[in-house]
Structures are given as structure tokens and as C-alpha cells.
Amino acid sequence: MEQRIICQKCKYYFVTWQPSKPHGCKAYGFKSKLIPSLVVKRSSGRDCSFFELKNSK
Predict the structure, then answer these.
(1) What domain of life does the native source organism fall in (predicted)?
(2) Residue 39: inside a domain, yes or no?
(3) What pTM did the predictor assign?
């Protein structure tokens, strides 16, 4: 079973506040309308290799 990557839980994910590209990834260096893990999967055929869980306080 494939495990889904939840970008919002990753330390590299950020919200851009741009309506046309609300999601960003610091590891890959891009902003997108879609969740970054979906963009990576669709463009490379592979899952994101940079996912790291955010530090929870």
C-alpha cells in the first residue's frame, strides 16, 4: 500500500498567500497551485525524497 505524503506536515512546506500558487516547497524551490508532493509525483514519477516531519513543540 502506498503511503501518502502530507506536505503540510513537512518542514519544507510553506503557504505563499498567492491565490494562483498557494503551496510552496523550500526543498525543491517552487510554488504551485497543487500540493508539492503531487507535482513531484506527476513530473518525476517518484515520491518526494525530501519529506521531513516538522518539529512539534
Answers:
(1) Bacteria
(2) yes
(3) 0.85
How far apart, in Å, do the first and last CA atoms of the chain sit? 30
User: What is the count of structural domains for the chain?
Assistant: 1
Please provide the DSSP assignment of 5-56 as one string: P-GGGBTTEEEEEETTEEEEETTTTEEESS-HHHHHHHHHSS--S---BPPP
Grid cell at residue 30: 517552487
Q: Pseudo-torsion of CA 25, 48, 42, 14, nearest 10°?
A: -20
Q: Using CA atoms, how far apart are residues 56 and 35, in angstroms rounded to an integer?
A: 21
| Tens digit of each residue's pLDDT (9 = 90 or more) over 2-33 | 578 999 999 999 999 999 999 999 999 999 99
